[in-house]
Automatic annotation (TrEMBL):
Organism listed in the record: Fragilariopsis cylindrus CCMP1102
Enzyme class: lyase
Function: Catalyzes the aldol condensation of dihydroxyacetone phosphate (DHAP or glycerone-phosphate) with glyceraldehyde 3-phosphate (G3P) to form fructose 1,6-bisphosphate (FBP) in gluconeogenesis and the reverse reaction in glycolysis.
Signal peptide as annotated in the record: 1-20
Pathway as given in its UniProt record: Carbohydrate degradation; glycolysis; D-glyceraldehyde 3-phosphate and glycerone phosphate from D-glucose: step 4/4
UniProt protein name: fructose-bisphosphate aldolase
EC number annotated for this UniProt entry: 4.1.2.13
Length: 441
């Protein structure tokens, strides 16, 4: 999981990161997907060869604005609208490492589909390193920025469109998002596009009036550089990333059409670059299939309510709101797919991919257990070395492969396969032997 041109990247990384935070008078961007020279792209910035899918300006089955790499601004909006118009949702996977990001990109390429890569505040801090002090969220900010640069660099190489997002941000975590928006503003001055694609602000525990007021302030700022805002109404039950809503009243798990309409009306006064994570029985965490009682009709009723309010100004498909699905583990596939017909264009995945990564490592250990008990000595002989088995790349790759497999199921459930219109992904070449990128086992 290291670049084959690691020495070159090491020499250019400092200047690349500096450009993200240094204003210049030169602004070029790739937000419309029309730049044959990959202006603003990481491949161009650091001189990495960009061939095959990476070099595409657009995809056969998608609007021309949508290109390989991280999307923002109109290109991002075009992708989300395409999802809504064609009845699919994009998997949004929480990542805590470059290994997890690479697994997501590999899965997207294998499924001929876009993907959303997102970081939580805790995941961002972990990405930056638990040995780094997090006073004023500086470790979480640095970790998310580092993850953003990795995602930008590799998304182009994998040749898939990516929305780069950050997950739940409560009121107390707003300084974290402030730092990330600032990073995008600085990056925009140099590249003509933000570093990230979008951010979620979750003020669902605050009064609705305060929730909307703060969200409008952030959307006003974010819209200027092409960032999208995801906001939450109601409470997603269960527990995730240290936030425990398992004891909240049942009525808090279901949003009301009037609240959703007020949100749509108020945010639209600022910009159309927003999505709504409305509550319809969603629960974070892992549960047996059928134990999560979703009510997608809440979303349908809200779309009808808002369309009636808009009258002739309602969109032709009568789906004015772009909804986000949180807490889907354990949900029936039928409920998930019904929600897609009601305007869900993004579904968060965290619990299931945490398990899939761990399960891959667990299965690797079970398979090679007798070769992992010491540096020397195994069933093949007391003097036989075990280095090729305990090489960390081995168990990490096992986690990646298992996660790619689990994400294939997610892409299928969300009807998000064969979206780009490319031929089937070919297997990676030149990976024979550990010195050439392969793995020894």
């Amino acid at each position: 999981m290291k670049f084959s041109i690691a020495i070159f990247l090491a020499s250019t990384a400092s200047s690349t990161f500096a450009n993200a935070f240094t204003p210049t008078s030169h602004a070029v961007g790739r937000t419309t997907g029309t730049s044959s020279a990959l202006n603003g792209g990481m491949s161009n910035d650091v001189g990495i060869p960009c061939t095959e899918e990476c070099a595409l300006e657009s995809f056969p089955n998608l609007p021309d604005s949508i290109h390989p790499g991280v999307l923002s601004g109109q290109a991002m909006m075009d992708l989300l609208q395409h999802a809504k118009d064609n009845g699919y949702a994009i998997p949004a996977v929480n990542c805590i490492s470059s290994s997890g990001i690479n697994a997501c990109l590999e899965a997207a390429k294998a499924n001929d589909a876009p993907i959303i890569i997102q970081f939580s505040s805790g995941g961002s801090q972990f990405y930056g390193g638990k040995g780094l002090d997090n006073t004023d969220y500086r470790a979480a900010i640095a970790g998310a920025v580092s993850g953003a640069f990795h995602t930008r660099t590799m998304a182009e190489q994998y040749g898939v469109p990516v929305i780069l997002h950050t997950d739940h941000c409560s009121k107390e975590l707003l300084p974290w998002v402030d730092g990330l928006v600032s990073a995008s503003e600085r990056y925009y001055k140099t590249h003509g596009e933000p570093l990230f694609s979008s951010h979620m602000i979750d003020l669902s525990e605050e009064p609705l009036e305060e929730n909307l007021s703060i969200c409008k302030d952030y959307l006003t700022r974010m819209e200027k550089v092409g960032l999208l805002l995801e906001m939450e109404l109601g409470i997603t039950g269960g527990e995730e990333d240290g936030v425990d809503n398992s004891d909240r009243p049942v009525e808090d798990l279901y949003s009301k059409p009037e609240e959703i309409y007020e949100t749509y009306r108020e945010l639209n006064k600022v910009s159309d670059k927003f999505t709504v994570a409305a509550a319809f029985g969603n629960v974070h965490g892992v549960y047996s299939p059928g134990n999560v009682k979703l009510d997608p009709e809440i979303l349908n009723n809200a779309q009808k309510f808002i369309s009636d309010k808009l009258g002739d100004k309602a969109p032709e498909n009568k789906l004015p709101v772009s909804f986000v699905f949180h807490g889907g583990s354990g949900s029936d596939v039928a409920d998930i797919q019904r929600s897609l017909t009601y305007g869900v264009i993004k579904m968060n995945i965290d619990t299931d991919t945490q398990w899939s990564y761990w399960e891959g490592i667990k299965n690797f250990e079970e398979k090679y257990h007798d070769y992992l008990q010491g540096q020397i000595g195994n069933p093949d002989g007391d003097d036989k070395p075990n280095k090729k088995y305990y090489d960390p790349r081995e168990c990490m790759r096992a986690g990646e492969v298992n996660t790619v497999k689990r994400l294939e199921q997610a892409f299928s459930d969300l009807k998000c396969q064969n979206i780009l219109g490319l031929k089937s992904a070919a297997g990676a070449k030149n990976v024979l032997g550990p010195r050439r990128g392969g793995l020894p086992v």
